[in-house]
Amino acid sequence: MEYNTQLEKLIIPEYGRNIQGMIKYCCSIENREERNLCAKAIIQVMGQLNPHLRDSADYTHKLWDHIFIISEFKLDVDSPYPIPSPESFNVKPELLTYPKGKIRYKHYGKTIEDIIKKAKEYPEGPERSELTRQIANHLKKSYYNWNKDSITDDVVIKNLNELSGGELKLDENASLSSHQELRGNTNGKKFFHKNNKHKNKHKHKHNNNNNRKF
Predict the structure, then answer these.
(1) Is the model's pLDDT at 91 over the cut of 50?
(2) DSSP assignment, residue 10?
(3) What is the DSSP string of 120-169?
(4) C-alpha 98: how far from chain center
(5) What are the pLDDT digits (tens) for 43-59?
(6) CB burial of residue 19 (10 Å; 0-12, 13-18, 19+)
(7) pLDDT on residue 31
(8) Dihedral sign computed on CA atoms, order 50, 55, 60, 63
(9) Which three-class secondary structure state does DSSP give residue 15?
């Protein structure tokens, strides 16, 4: 009995061992014309095994790249695309640079700090006042997600004042969202229970009619 661990390693496992064997056989064909025909036939089978690749613009190009990779770049055929080299697949990707900067309140996040900076550039007026109110509501909602028991408007207003350097202030008549509004609208649940109750009542009535003896 042979185990997969004892067999030759699959270079691209998605295509399976049969495709890898077909490509290996194609490399052994001495006649170039026959080898080209064999490679094109294998490309068609590879396309059928991976139909999701058809959504990409360079669908056929990818298949030809894959056939050369599976052959370990030993397949000598006339490709309609530039033949890749082993060196091109050994290049390591560049390291990603992560944004650095201290977040004052982690439960509010970094993005809201950028929004506050942008809001401070707005001139005094209704637009800035409304934007300030929306930011305060967002702070309250973010705070509520972390701590549902102890959240007050005073804490939110104080944090907004600190984050904006005292430049963004709520109007005296402005009001923040309530706890119920932060938890989400419950009308949908009420409607569901009401509708479900009506269905159960109708079902019970229908069952009584069926059980009635004539």
Answers:
(1) yes
(2) P
(3) TTSPSSHHHHHHHHHHHHHHHHHHHHH-SSS--HHHHHHHHHHHTTT---
(4) 19
(5) 999 988 878 777 777 88
(6) buried
(7) 95
(8) negative
(9) helix
**Token pair listed for 10:** 């699959």
Between CA 158 and CA 64 the distance in angstroms is 62
DSSP single-letter state for residue 175: -
Tell me the CA end-to-end span of the chain in Å, nearest whole number: 73
* Euclidean distance between CA atoms 184 and 148, whole angstroms: 13
Average pLDDT over the chain, rounded to an integer: 80
> How do residues 96-150 score in pLDDT, each as one tens digit?
887 677 778 888 888 888 889 888 888 888 888 888 888 888 888 888 887 766 6
pLDDT at residue 16 greater than cutoff 70: yes
Write the CA distances from 191 to 7, 194, 205, integer angstroms.
62, 5, 21
Determine contact, residues 16/49, Cβ cutoff 8 Å: yes
Q: Tell me which residue of 190, 171, 170, 172 sits closest to 180, measured CA to CA.
A: 190
Which residue type, as a one-letter code, is found at position 131? L
Is residue 145 within 8 Å of 107, Cβ to Cβ?
Answer: yes
> What residue type is assigned to position 47 of the chain?
G
Report the distance separating Cα 136 and Cα 170, nearest Å.
Answer: 8
CA-closest candidate to residue 11, choices 92, 77, 86: 86
The pTM (predicted TM-score) of the whole model is 0.46
